[in-house]
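Recap quiz, item 2
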Amino acid sequence: MIEIRGIAKSFDGLNVVRDASFVARDGEITGLIGPNGAGKTTLFRLIGTVLRPDRGATLIDGIDSQRDQLAARHRLGVLPDVRGLYPRLTAREHIRYFGELHAIPRAELDARITELTVALRMEDFIDRRTHGFSRGQQMKVALARALVHRPHNIMLDEPTNGLDVTTSRAVRDLLRGLRDEGRCILLTSHIMQEVTVLADRIVVLAGGTIVMEGTPAELRRVTGLADLEEIFLAATSGHEPSEAAWAAGD
Amino acid sequence: MRAIISVFRKEMRDHLRDKRSIIVAMIYPLMGPLLLGLMFFFVGGSMRVNEDAPLIVPVMNPQNAPDIVHYLQQHGAILRNVRGNPQTIVAGGWVPFALILPATPEIDPEKPLPVQLLTNPSRFDSIVATGRVVELLNTYQRETVRARLQQAGLSPNLTDVLQIDQQNIGRAAGPSVILLTMIPPFLIFTLFTGGVHVTLDSTSGERERGSFEPLMMNPVTRAQVLTGKIGASMVFTLMALGVQIFAFWIMLHIVPRESLGLNEPLSALRLGAVASICLPIVVLAAALQLLISAATRSMKEAQTYLGLLPLVPGLAGMVLALAPVQAQPLLAAIPTFGQTLLMGQMVRAEAVNWLLVGITAAATLITTGLLLALGFRLYEREGILFPQG
């Protein structure tokens, strides 16, 4: 479970995230949505422990990530929007590298890599260097290395960004499978349709604050609107981008 | 420790597959020995004094000083008449020098004979040939004076004030040995370039590719990651150093000893000792590279500064090669400068003060420790993980 408590972050006097609180529960897919510059990437990095909040706390399975950063990271698997692969390493070497950093014993790691290769259908390119990989192949490698240590909490930033229909569907099926195992999934996406299809709970972020939170049914009931896109527009209208000045592409 | 080893192994695997890292570590270090070898062949060869080669003496007005001409010929010199303007001919490098004898025949034996020697010291062959003819003319003068003193009933040694016994106890048998003192600057240059691409690519490059962020979401500290990366960079620097030392050793054995100007060649052991003196610089270079990559916003910017970095200690070494300075504790305590001084002493076969070796190593390691601490601190900044937009 990922619990965000009154978290705030500013850069050069610019409040990018302001007093944000929400919970991403186990056995659920939580969709974090927001317009460009809403603070999603910053919030994502705060939960991923690569940024420190000015105020508030992030609890990963009850572990305060600021107090015990390494223990929190053990419980997290992260797929950033920028996949950040090493072009001279093979897909297998990528997964092995992250597995080693999680101190997974060699035999167990070998078995886990085989398991992920089959699950993500990477047999054709598992021993190829990642230089020249398609976006779908890159995403699979990045996802495999994020999952190598069987994290209980999985965060995905734009997981289907740039993927074709078939691969997007495969990713969605995989995420549902992970949720059904009781894991906590937190994903961000620009694509409203994807969030609608996948998310059990939606958190809307605008201007660095949480402006709406609930299941799709709850959001429809509260707003009186049927279409999630309309709900999103109603929730975020009038909020200025908080992040644009610091980080692009959010 | 396990995390450090994992990062180290990943960087080694990654960069052993990288052409640029391999070229910088394995090919660039060959340039110094190759360049120096060519200099020894061409410069050292022309500076070599070959007593067996006939001395060609371009001369004007030989008919006016038959005694000198006879003496020179008696001592193996072959005289060639200079035609045209001797200044133009010597300055143009057509002849290494020109001996201008008096325009009128010698008449008064009590007056010194005006002899002019036109030389061109900008050419190495001119320096050597001029040296030989000057030595012959001086000997002629000395012998003539002795003969005249004897004729006057005086001791032939009357004009000898000193009896100079010059012995060469150094490694050098010729002036070209000065080129050997360029070995330390080449080594220093290699120490600052050997692992530079590895450091740059695994720090600034990693940030620019966006792979630093996912890496740091693993349960590892930044210090562990950086230590693994620096370790890989140092291995590449050591590889470059090893390649260069081996290439220098081969060069010193291929180039003829007369061209080297050495009484005995530098042994592999001595070359190894020279290399071991600069080992602390391996860590220093990695620390400086890390610091620059941390202080710059992009790989391009870091590349600019890192390209200039080796020039600072390298140029100091070049100056030392041409104007050697006596090693003192204060100078030895300057990182890279101290090593250059001591390595220079070693290649010139001078006695090395081991206390100074210790001071140099300690000063370099302390400086390195401070730079590493600063570099690690800079890498704790939040923004350093993300590409700068």
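Residues 149 and 239 of chain A are 39 Å apart (CA to CA).
The interface with chain B takes residues 45, 48-52, 70-71, 73-74, 76, 78, 80, 82-86, 88-89, 93, 97-98, 100-103, 129, 142, 145-146, 247-248 of chain A (CB under 8 Å).
End of item.
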